[in-house]
Amino acid sequence: MIQIQTTKDIQKLMKKYQKEGKTIGFVPTMGFLHDGHLSLVKQARTDNDIVVMSIFVNPLQFGPGEDYETYPRDIERDRNLAAKAGVDILFMPSVEDMYQQESTMIVHVKKRTNVLCGRSRIGHFDGVATVLTKLFQLIIPTRAYFGMKDAQQVAVVDGLINEFFMDIELVPVETVREEDGLAKSSRNVYLTEAERKEAAVLYQSLQYGAQLIQDGERDPGVIKKQICSMLENTTGLIDYVEIYSYPDLESLETLTGKCIIAVAVQFSKARLIDNLIIDIPSRKEGK
Ligand code: PAF
């Protein structure tokens, strides 16, 4: 595995691969790798000649009071995991190199951000879109891999790629879960033992919502209420329980088509999110 630390060096290397006509799979991460990241690498490995992973804890996507300083980091462990998973190039730039002395540009995301995590994390998706624009520009990937645990991020990246005519195939990869259903996340390490047990209810509540839809319920208000009471009985502070169309993330009066049920719960030191995407067939007239 080649390790690269500067924007200049990665650009030089990627230009060489492009000239050789290699397909490039890109897995952007903020490190502290877990099975979710490794499943992205596995998919990228299958689809491409070269697999590039970036590890960069992006300060621009953390708001004041969020966990930028304390975000879990373990570069030695990440290096080993990335190499074992089959990453060819590990790119680990510094903040100074990515943002230079005085950044004067950001990418502002105008849609799909005033809901779910975007509602409480003002500027978060501008930070994500800005760093990804820079990373895409440096790496020029054929395909870019993102976990569906951050379904709102996938929707935003979809908009970014389409609106800026980027010649990149977005590959969403299914969420990887622990045995009890908890979605794998770098932030799970913040949970206390008791919270870790409680946290399984996030996925259970989503499955309960899906079951209600399966049983014929189409009123998002009713489903949200039921999910909320299930969460309230078991766990920490509910940040949101929401249902929207996907990927447009628009409110629906009656559920139909591709929809997302999403939850976010604040524990003592971690805010966890999870979601399910459900394709709901439209009802036939008269039924
Ligand atoms: O999902 C993440 O880890 C980050 O938001 C990303 C895509 C690496 C951008 O910093």
UniProtKB/TrEMBL annotation:
Functional pathway: Cofactor biosynthesis; (R)-pantothenate biosynthesis; (R)-pantothenate from (R)-pantoate and beta-alanine: step 1/1
KW Nucleotide-binding (keyword) present: yes
Pfam family, one: Pantoate_ligase
Binding site for ATP: 30-37, 147-150, 176, 184-187
Catalytic activity field: (R)-pantoate + beta-alanine + ATP = (R)-pantothenate + AMP + diphosphate + H(+)
Keywords for this protein: ATP-binding, Cytoplasm, Ligase, Nucleotide-binding, Pantothenate biosynthesis
A Gene Ontology molecular function term of the record: ligase activity
Family membership: Belongs to the pantothenate synthetase family.
Stated role: Catalyzes the condensation of pantoate with beta-alanine in an ATP-dependent reaction via a pantoyl-adenylate intermediate.
Protein name: Pantothenate synthetase
Protein source organism: Bacillus changyiensis
Annotated gene: panC
